[in-house]
Fold:
Amino acid sequence: VVESFIDELAVLARKDPVEFRLQMLDKNRRMKKLVETVAEKSGWGQKLSKGHGRGIACSFCFGSHVAEVAEVSVENGRIKVHKVDVAVDCGTGVAPNTLEAQVEGAIVLGLTAALKNEITIQNGRAQQGNFDTCPLMTIDEMPEVAVHVVNSYEPLGGIGEPPVPPIAPAVCNAIYALTGKRVRKLPIPKLV
Structure:
């Protein structure tokens, strides 16, 4: 909610969403560096393929800072996420391959929640009880995920959960950039 609201404020201020965030981050050098990094690595500001949009979001949790850019398109009313760039500062990345795998797994989890999983209640009980009724994104549905580690000398933070919170707003902000429509419900409904 917060990251989509910041995107709305940027639009109202007639500012680029990245520039708007950078102006607010003067006192948070770690997050500012991540926003700059993910903007550069994702090609923010460069022309996209026709019918594609980009969105950005960032968050801090479990001692780690994360900024993400999602590139999306709409195909038959459904959202397709093509690429996700993730810049992460968890202090010093101790095991780079494991760190990258954790970030990729977090993107799977976050995109699944944003795009697929709806929990329905019938007679007071959730209808979804396991992966057969609440499946994860499959390999053919997954976008390219590029992980950009920005090491710092700050205390070590977690890496399993921190990339999850910004993916839904990054996708929703990309949808707005592409269609001019705000998403206010998850999972993201079919766009008409």
